[in-house]
Write a structure and sequence with these properties.
The complex is a heterodimer.
Chain A: H1 9-21, H2 23-37, H3 44-69, H4 77-95, H5 98-122, H6 127-146, E1 151-152, H7 160-163, E2 165-166, E3 169-170, H8 171-189, H9 191-201, H10 203-208, H11 213-239, E4 241-242, H12 250-260, H13 272-291, H14 296-319
Antiparallel strand pairs in A: 1-4, 2-3
Helix pairs in contact in A: 2-13, 3-8, 3-9, 3-11, 3-12, 3-13, 4-5, 4-6, 4-11, 5-6, 5-11, 8-9, 12-13, 12-14, 13-14
Chain B: E1 3-14, E2 17-28, E3 31-37, H1 43-51, E4 58-63, E5 66-67, H2 72-78, E6 81-84, H3 96-100, E7 107-108, E8 111-112, H4 114-127, H5 143-156, E9 161-165, H6 173-188, E10 192-196, H7 200-206, E11 209-214, E12 217-223, H8 229-237, E13 255-263, E14 271-276, E15 280-285, H9 291-299, E16 306-311, E17 314-316, H10 321-326, E18 329-332, H11 336-340, H12 347-351, H13 356-359, H14 367-380, H15 397-406, E19 415-419, H16 427-442, E20 446-451, H17 454-460, E21 463-468, E22 471-477, H18 483-490, H19 494-498
Classes of the chains: A mainly alpha, B alpha/beta.
């Protein structure tokens, strides 16, 4: 896929600009359009709600980026979110300790991530299939433990995590911002981050350059499991219960946001700022449709349409 | 003789690079036309334009005097053009017959007509003189036969213009002769053949005419008989190369690499050899003799089943490439694209892929050091790239190879294993790489070079290990080595040849 002929200078400069800015431009345009065209969009209250609505996707996208950059997938995150909430609820109710509940949930997610990583990295099973399997196992586990019903959480102190605000922004939004910042730092500035991109770009070359491919993947999946569990804990706090049936299709939402942010599904390419843009674009569209009172069913269509459009845009950019 | 194919003012511009600039020449029907040029001279780009994979930014192609339609690869196929690349475009999991008729299987109402397919496939394979079972799984065939299948496939499409891109880079001498016979027959049938190769011997043995490109420009097109080798090299590099190897004896500095009873997949028996620090040990053998396997076992890229490796007299435990690199033992792998580079990452990233580990502080990349390192390697190895941030896949093969080699130059290397370091790259870049290898040896590095090219092995090495059928047949000192003696050692026993 070599770059093809250059266009005339002004068009070329615009094209180069699009190349670098890409989805960030789309985000700004979309935001401007919604500010002008959608009533109440620009209100502080709505923007808070918008940020809260995308906070979970954002958290998990910050680790999913690593997974995709390394050339893998993780389909189990939605199930882990649900199961971690259930685990947290059950443990908190039985021990009365918030800390024990959170620790159990995080431990659970980490364990699922470790299993995913071990199966993908050590046994070299295709990540799509491996995590498709754990996704169903974990979802089943969530239903079994909760007996298929929502588990109300007794210790009320726990609800502060998801429902309080700091400096005018909900706590989950702050957590998400921290995840983005930390993820970006790790991806760009650490050996682990650079190794991740090399592994995704060419695992064999990375291996021969002394990068421990299996270790990199194991770490990524483990972090991904822990992060999904953490998001599950935050969600449980917001909902004041652990719900086994929540976050169905969440994994695809996260992967969509990443792909919208230009992360290559074949690995080796990805950056955090673009993923942030991807997450926000998805969120803004959904929010605007809510404000416009468009039926929720149409939101699926819109989400799919945007994703397809983004991929075509990316293709066009590379063909140029 | 008529012009079957003509390039008319072909130009190709990439951002920042003029890959081709006003290239015009003609290829006659019934002739084998060599296309030569240094790394990045524009040969690959020209082939891509010919195959329809890329569109020229100016100028175009004429076929039998008429402008070729600009309709992509399908259009080129329909116009009777076939380009046979180094990396074959075949489907390993399908049968030979299915591969031959890929995209136009004989069918009735959507169902494949199997009997007809087999018969037609057998006819095509006979045309290239190969006794290959049309029902065999393609992936199970040796590389040379797969190449014949690719040629036969071009013929099923009725190709009249056939371009070969470095077709012999992974063939043994015997297979090369077979290929030549087929290429000559295609010429005699009136096909126009465009033949891209870096191997001077082949060009002079096979071709009638030659076109030489340099820096994207057309230098000369002439009958090959009117040029000698010196002239060809002069046209390619724009300067004279007296001796591209520049061999000079070096002092050995004690033990370098010692391998004892190394065993593992690809080796027929445990292998032992030693090479000194400061020595260049060549390793020659036919394809499949176990040379790459030996290097990968030493490097820990393939788990070994027995034996030991010592560096500078001390035995080291190597279970992975990472261990090997930590011990100062590094490998430049055989297949650049598959094992050497990370195509979508930048030149800078590729150069720092390994060395960054030593420079990192608390897991954080030492960015200014990495920029400096990349700049130094680019200057030292004269890597031609618009910038360190350029994706490495846009570089030419020789420059990619320099990056793969350059990756190790910031490491404290004691043993350098190189697997076909100059495969598919031009004379100029070759001589640069030879100079780098000699410099490293002079500084006390023990260098092991695997190569299929006899002149290279002879020109570069202090001693030469010859491998045959998974074992080291002999280690020959430079003074005693000739092309004939090495070949004799490398060829399988006569009984095996007959079989």
């Amino acid at each position: 896929m070599s770059p093809s002929a250059p266009a005339s200078p002004p068009a070329r400069r615009f094209a180069d600009f699009l190349d670098r800015a890409g989805m960030l431009v789309v985000l700004v345009l979309l935001f401007a359009a919604c500010s002008l065209g959608v009533e109440n969009f620009l209100s502080w209250r709505n923007l808070q709600g918008l940020a809260l609505a995308v906070s979970m996707t954002g958290m998990v996208a910050s680790t999913m980026l690593f997974c995709l950059a390394a050339g893998d997938f993780d389909l189990s995150v939605g199930a882990v979110v649900a199961a971690a909430g259930v685990v947290a609820a059950v443990v908190m109710n039985q021990t009365g300790s918030i800390a024990a509940g959170v620790a159990a949930a995080l431990g659970f997610g980490t364990a699922v991530g470790l299993v995913n990583g071990w199966v993908v990295a050590r046994l070299q099973i295709n990540a799509l299939i491996a995590t498709l399997a754990t996704m169903q196992i974990v979802r089943g586990f969530a239903y079994i433990v909760s007996d298929g019903k929502a588990v109300g959480i007794a210790p009320e102190g726990f609800f502060a995590l998801g429902n309080s605000a700091f400096l005018g922004l909900p706590v989950p939004v702050w957590i998400t911002l921290a995840c983005f910042a930390l993820g970006g730092l790790i991806l760009n500035r650490t050996v682990f981050g650079r190794d991740t991109l090399a592994v995704g770009g060419n695992p064999e070359a990375a291996h021969l350059a002394g990068i421990s491919v299996a270790r990199v993947k194991l770490l990524i999946f483990t972090a991904q499991g822990a992060m999904a569990a953490f998001a599950g804990v935050v969600l449980a706090s917001r909902m004041t219960s652990g719900q086994p049936g929540t976050s169905l299709g969440f994994e695809l939402e996260v992967i969509s946001a990443c792909v919208l942010g230009g992360v290559s599904l074949t690995g080796g390419v990805g950056s955090m700022s673009y993923v942030v843009a991807g997450v926000l674009i998805m969120g803004i569209v959904q929010n605007a449709m809510n404000l416009k009172n468009i039926e929720p069913f149409w939101q699926y269509v819109a989400r799919g349409g945007i994703l397809l459009g983004a991929v075509l845009f990316d293709r066009w950019k590379r063909r140029r | 003789m008529s012009s079957a194919l003509a390039f008319r003012g072909v130009a190709m511009e990439f951002p920042g690079v003029k890959a081709l600039d006003d290239v015009s020449f003609e290829v006659r029907a019934g002739s084998i036309h060599a296309l030569m040029g240094e790394n990045g001279a524009g040969k690959s780009t020209l082939l891509k334009i010919l195959s329809g994979a890329q569109r020229a930014t100016a100028g175009g192609i004429e076929i039998a005097g008429r402008p070729a339609p600009a309709a992509g690869t399908a259009g080129a196929l329909a116009a009777g053009i076939a380009v046979i690349y180094q990396e074959l475009h075949l489907v390993p999991e399908m049968s030979v017959a299915e591969n031959l008729f890929l995209g136009h299987l004989p069918q009735r109402a959507g169902f494949v007509r199997r009997a007809e397919l087999q018969a037609a496939a057998r006819r095509q394979l006979e045309r290239v003189g190969e006794a290959i079972d049309p029902a065999a799984r393609l992936g199970g065939l040796p590389l040379a036969q797969r190449q014949m299948v690719e040629i036969a496939k071009a013929l099923t499409r009725g190709a009249r213009i056939i371009a070969f891109d470095e077709p012999t880079s992974s063939l043994s001498d015997r297979e090369v002769q077979r290929l030549f016979a087929i290429v000559r027959e295609l010429r005699d049938q009136g096909c126009a053949i465009l033949y891209v190769s870096h191997r001077m011997d082949e060009i002079f043995a096979l071709c009638d005419r030659i076109t030489i490109l340099r820096d994207g420009r057309h230098v000369v097109t002439s009958a090959l008989a009117d040029l000698d080798r010196a002239a060809v090299i002069r046209h390619m590099v724009g300067r004279t190369l007296a001796d591209i190897y520049n061999y000079a004896p070096r002092p050995f500095r004690g033990p370098g690499l010692k391998v004892r009873d190394l065993a593992g997949p690809g080796l027929a028996e445990p292998c032992s050899f030693a090479a000194a620090a400061g020595e260049i040990l060549g390793c020659f053998g036919l394809v499949g003799a176990g040379r790459s396997e030996l290097l990968r076992l030493i490097f820990g890229a393939t788990p070994r089943t027995g034996g030991s490796v010592a560096i500078a007299g001390k035995e080291v435990a190597i279970a992975s490439p990472r261990d090997a690199i930590a011990a100062g033992l590094v490998l430049c792998p055989e297949d650049r694209k598959k094992e050497g580079i990370v195509p979508v990452r930048s030149v800078l990233e590729n150069l720092n892929l390994s060395a960054r580990r030593r420079r990192a502080r608390a897991g954080f990349v030492a960015e200014s050091w990495e920029r400096r390192n990349a700049a130094e390697r680019i200057a030292q190895l004269r890597i031609r790239t618009p910038s360190p941030a350029q994706q490495i896949r846009h570089l030419s093969g020789g420059n990619q190879q320099k990056v793969v080699l350059g990756r190790w130059l910031a490491e404290p290397v004691r043993v350098l294993l190189c697997d076909e370091p100059t495969r598919g790259i031009d004379v100029g870049a070759k001589s640069e790489i030879y100079a780098i290898l000699q410099d490293l040896a002079r500084s006390g590095v023990c260098v092991v070079v695997v190569s299929s090219e006899l002149p290279e092995v002879l020109g570069l090495s202090d001693r030469i290990a010859v491998m045959r059928e998974g074992r080291i047949a002999a280690i020959v000192p430079r003074a005693d080595a000739t092309e004939e003696s090495l070949l004799r050692l490398a060829l399988p026993a006569p009984a095996a040849v007959a079989g």
